[in-house]
Known about the structure:
The structure is a homodimer. Chain A is mainly alpha-helical. In chain A, 70% of the residues lie in helices and 1% in strands.
Amino acid sequence: MTAEAAQSPLAAPFSQIAADINTLFDEVLGVPDDARDRLVEAMRYAAMGGGKRLRPILVCASADLFGVPRSMSLRAGLAVECIHAHSLIHDDLPCMDDDDLRRGKPTVHVAFDEATAVLAGDALLALAFDILGAAETHPDAEVRVELTRELSRAAGAWGMAGGQMLDLRPMAGPVDMDAVARLQRLKTGAIIAWSVDAGAVLGRASSEERTSLRGFAHSLGLAFQIADDMLDCSGNAATVGKRLRKDEEQGKATFVTLLGEDRARRQAQMLIDQAVEHLKPFGARSALLRHIAKFSVDRAY
Amino acid sequence: MTAEAAQSPLAAPFSQIAADINTLFDEVLGVPDDARDRLVEAMRYAAMGGGKRLRPILVCASADLFGVPRSMSLRAGLAVECIHAHSLIHDDLPCMDDDDLRRGKPTVHVAFDEATAVLAGDALLALAFDILGAAETHPDAEVRVELTRELSRAAGAWGMAGGQMLDLRPMAGPVDMDAVARLQRLKTGAIIAWSVDAGAVLGRASSEERTSLRGFAHSLGLAFQIADDMLDCSGNAATVGKRLRKDEEQGKATFVTLLGEDRARRQAQMLIDQAVEHLKPFGARSALLRHIAKFSVDRAY
């Protein structure tokens, strides 16, 4: 286990997943012996630079419900972590959020340069689909192609990229909880939902099981975003490892600005209770998913 | 047929393909009724704004060799055109080539803004894999997943993005024909090679047939790049629709700076002869591919 994995905030049951994701990134991101080395180094810097590994952990915990071999769920987790790293690199660019710090380190465009950051984000996005398509991810090509399509939608204009566009533009009309929840559902919710669903797709879950897990993912995604908004508002920048109070500076409506901190905290807790309720059909097998749900609001970063 | 398609430089046999690609883009890029409209409008601006449609035409002409229904090859062509549009948007960004003009129109980051350009490029890259994964592209999921994986590799760090990285960095060691050809093989060659191979994959070509087509694509890609270099050097900016003489300004080695114009032209012609030679096993069926090969060096834009 690497030192980084040992620091995983999700502790014992998940630190192995974080370590395995790092090992897999090390394998798929071999540095070429020519001027492309800078590009791959930037991809490694972004992808292997820590992070909670929440999304791969969700894939694995969901897949565990259906007895999917870890070798398969880890690959789907690796793919979604490529998408996540891609989105952070591009989000941090000067023309987007213009952030210098991420996970306590200079962002990719600061540590390298803007052009390399654009290309590294692009290449990580493309890499996700190469990883998902490999036979090692699942022996059935129908399963691989379903994962691929759903991930491309979760990442694209009708998912994450669309959410980022909404986030960049001033909201029209009344900025209420519905509008903020809608933005979250696209910007971060679609990829979290894919992560939970991927375990079910790999495990050929029944449609009832998938519906339960979708309910879980929906509530979890909202709770996770509220927790993020609370950290942005009252967290410690050194612990969180990135610039905070951005929403406030930019005058953006968030769950916390709309509800206040106390109500936001209660709302997050209520959402976690709802999320856990959706796991009932899975009984004791869902202990890991319940653990993630609790962590998602009780974290300091 | 749209006015734009009617202007296709490849004339009659191909203008229908260009028109069909526009129609398909219009279908897959429906503008949402909210603030994401700006993102999708930028994607449409980039993807439907003309262009030679060389890559979709290559997919269709290659697939025609094997009697693949046009409805299938057009979808693979649509996917590769998403990748092409993605790469042009990001290539034109201020931190990359910093170009204001493309196909005679302001580039995406000028017509919209940089953040929208980054997101539109990202979303087009993601969209390609959604399109390829759909059952309408091919009934066999194994075929779809093979197309997906190969395209993700052709676009990513070990293909186009890697080539763009090479292009951004001063070359180490002697800058000779091999170094320039190697850059081309990654930066533009990988996607051209995918386009020709996609037709063969859709048509379940034999390995001998695929090898022949790979030879064709390799020679064609090089010839196409030499023609591009010649246009950059002596073309008319108004006709070509983008800023020219960039290579010269930046002191970059190209086929033309290394060989001179006359030898470069002869080299391109020789490559086209080689490309056509690879088509021999297909006899008269390959008339369309031969036509594309001829066009690729005889064009004014």
